[in-house]
Each structure stands twice: as structure tokens, then as C-alpha cells.
Amino acid sequence: MTSRLQPDQPHDWSALAERLRRCASALAGRGRGDLADDLVQDTVARLLSRGGDPPSYAYARAALVRLYLDHHRGAARRAARALRWAASVQRRSPETSADVDGGALERALDRLSPLQRAALTLRLVEDLPTGAVAEALGASERVVRASLHTARVKMRAMLSEGGEP
């Protein structure tokens, strides 16, 4: 028994993946092609596991958007964990005499570039060596060391007396 294809239903998986790639690129934004590719691969893998013909584009797009939102929720949870950890370390740190409130810490972390924030989190929160951080971020160790140094300098400046980097 052959199934009748809907007008928005692609005829094969590669056509569906290409349509999803355009949507994922728009969701992820400029310069985030890796995230877009990961979203498409995860979406297609989940849809393939269901078996059968490719689903309609509307159904596949909804699955892609759900994965995208899950990715951001997970990133928000990881950032919240990093903030709690950084706040606890900051309170115990002998370098500063005053406690820093979580809001100031969060604002300071938000001002870091994504690479600096990721490198700082992986190095300090996950306690990964610089080489492992570089591998996880797809960057050289030199870039990671420079990002960590810049992030620490910026954080100190922003957290001390409301200074700006």
C-alpha cells in the first residue's frame, strides 16, 4: 500500500534534511553553523528511529524547534550551575573582602564572549585541563589560554567596585 504524500511532505530524507537545515540556520543565527548542523542531525535521527517514510515538513520542523529549545534550556541550566559555583567560590575567595551578589556575577558572565564563557565554565566548573577545554571547544590551546586570561581579567574588573573591563 503506497501512502499519498502531502504537499509539504518531502519525497526523501535528504530533501527533508535540506529544508530543516535552512530552518536550523535561522534559529541558530549567524556563525552558529555547528549548532544548526547538530540540530538537523539530531532531528533526522529521531525521525528515522520512528521508521517509515519521511514525515511532513511541519512535523519535522516542530521536532527541530523542540530540540532547539531543549538545547537552550540545557544551556541555561548549565549556566545557572556555573553561577552558583562561581558565587560560592567568590564568597570563599580571600582576594575579595566583600561578597558579590549573584546578579552582579550573572551580569559579568553575560558580558563575556561565548568562547570566554564556555572556556571559563569548562576550566573552572568542570575542572578540565586546558587541552581538554581546547578539544571540547574545537580551538587551539593558545586560544583557550588567551580566552581564559581575558575572561578572568574582565570578571575581576567587573566584580570589583562595579568596574568595567
Secondary structure layout plus pairing:
Layout: H1 13-28, H2 33-50, H3 57-92, H4 102-110, H5 114-125, H6 130-137, H7 141-159
Give an overview in words.
This protein is mostly helical. The protein folds into two domains: 60 residues; 67 residues, Winged helix-like DNA-binding domain superfamily/Winged helix DNA-binding domain (Arc Repressor Mutant, subunit A). 72% of the residues lie in helices and 0% in strands. It contains seven helices and no strands. Helix 1 packs antiparallel against helix 2. The longest helix is centred in the middle third of the chain and has 36 residues. It is elongated. It starts with 12 loop residues before the first helix and ends in a 6-residue tail after the last helix. The N terminus is likely disordered.
User: Major beta sheet, specifics?
Assistant: none
Please provide the count of β strands.
Answer: 0
**SS content category:** mainly alpha
SSE order, one letter for each helix or strand = HHHHHHH
> How far apart, in Å, are the first and last alpha carbons?
67 Å
Instruction: Give the averaged pLDDT, no decimals.
Output: 78
The helix fraction, in percent, is over 70%
Question: Which topology of the largest domain does CATH recognise?
Answer: Arc Repressor Mutant, subunit A
Instruction: Work out the strand percent.
Output: under 5%
Q: Which architecture of the largest domain does the CATH hierarchy give at level 2?
A: Orthogonal Bundle
Helical run tally: 7
CATH homologous superfamily name of the largest domain? Winged helix-like DNA-binding domain superfamily/Winged helix DNA-binding domain
Low-confidence region ranges: 1-7, 92-98
